Amino acid sequence: VFAGFGVVSAESNYDDYKGIDAKDNIVLIFDTTPDSGNPHSAFARFDIHTKANIAKDHGAKAIILIAEDNDFKNDRLSRLSYDRTLGETAVPVIGVSRVVGATLFGLKSQGSLAIVETHLANSQVWVLAPPDDVIDTRPMISLKIELTKKQVDAYNVIGILPGTDPQLRGEAIIIGAHYDHLGHGGSGSLAANSTDIHHGADDNASGTSAVIELARQFVKEKKNKRTLIFTAFSGEEEGLLGSKYYVNNPIWPLDKTIAMINLDMVGRLNEGKLTIGGVGTASEWRTVIEEQNSPAVLRHSLTPLTEFKGLIFNEDGFGPSDHSSFYGKNIPVLFFFTGTHADYHKPTDTFDKINFGGLSQITNYVGRIVSSVDQNLIKPTYAVAKSSGSMGQVRLTVSLGTIPSYGDTTDGMILDGVRDNSPASKAGLKAGDKIVRLAGKDVRNAMDYTYVLGSMKPGEEYEVELIRGTERMKLKIIPAAAARRP
């Protein structure tokens, strides 16, 4: 059965499934939306996974997506694969070229297929091409997808420098960075069809090398009062796996871990602009980071130091890197980042584009901040930070204030954290809860969760069913309106 773009949107009064019986059938849809190309489209959230959930809701057994590009090898569907961070989707999905798509419609040419697509986008009514371009066909299709999952070992690499102060050595500061990248590409790559080595010089050899250099400096001096833990995390690109594992299996008690400093993509300093996240997670952070960048401190240094002219502060302790795992455990964090760029998640992220002088400047700056925290008898005071909004590109109209886990699950979505004073915290949700149903729909993973959020409205009450330990419970939650983003 044909279901247009596969979109159902109550807020836009749009329904491609109206009058269609998809139950137990395979749904044929275009891999576009009614106003494709509009970055502010109300349909922007209808990606492949959302369309798959809609098809499931209508009883479909599978989806066939018709590619957007006339040359299939250039289309994203030619790279359609399982994404572990999103979990199993609702129904099997395959992508086909426009030539095959035209054949399934009973058309002789891609040009006639374009007529169908254009009419559908303009009026939500589709018409076929002239009769002489139609062939008599009744497509019957069967498909089978086999998904074989393989578990592999990954490792966090940790070095410990014991503190020298008898009173403070029981407290620890973690300085960390992730060392994994994308290998030969795959689902996380932004380079179309590339199987070249994705070098990850900035993301995140820059942060890893900074941690190693900081370890070398502190080991050479051996003046640290508190214990310093230098950590290279694995699995960050797969959903913060390494740092999540650490906070659930710490080598140092978390209640004795006074701060976590994270360096992720610090190799492209441009015009002295350095972003520091987590500034709101401790009441002392802003004073410390500004003090260590002040002319007075730089002037009295034994080595020539340069002032950062463009420090950019972000209050939030949650974010798309390993510090988020620690902030979820109420540990003050700082996150250093020089910004994204055109080589992000591509093979072109190579060492020759690293600003080595800037990387050295950032490393020394972080070292001064760590020393300042280490030498101060008073540890940073944990604070609830102001949210910077939702991560990722999915545009939603509601917010619950949850921090989803992107682990590979099929029996519920675990919460890594819950923001204070959010709808989730007011409803009684906690970190570690596994959400299994929301607003009357099953939730098996983060993608299911995002799909359900897309249908919810601010101010209305919904039921959320969850598992906490061995207890299954139901709570009531009222979503807030999502913050507007440009």
Structure characterization notes:
This protein is α/β, with parallel strands linked by helices and 486 residues long. It is 23% helix and 19% strand. The strands form five sheets. The protein has a seven-stranded mixed sheet with strand order 6-8-7-9-12-10-11, with helices on both faces. Strands 14, 15, 16, 17, 18 and 19 form a six-stranded antiparallel sheet that branches. It has a three-stranded parallel sheet with strand order 3-4-5. Helix 4 packs across helix 9.
Our count of helices gives: 11
Number of strands: 20
Specify the structural class.
alpha/beta
Distance between the first and last residues' Cα: 37 Å
**Oligomeric form:** single chain
* Main sheet attributes: strand count, strand direction, barrel closure: 7 strands, mixed
From the spread of the alpha carbons, the general shape counts as: globular
Helix share of residues?
A: 10-25%
Strand order within the widest sheet?
6-8-7-9-12-10-11
- State Rg: 26 Å
Mean pLDDT: 87
How big a fraction of the residues is strand? Answer: 15-25%
Low-confidence stretches: 390-394
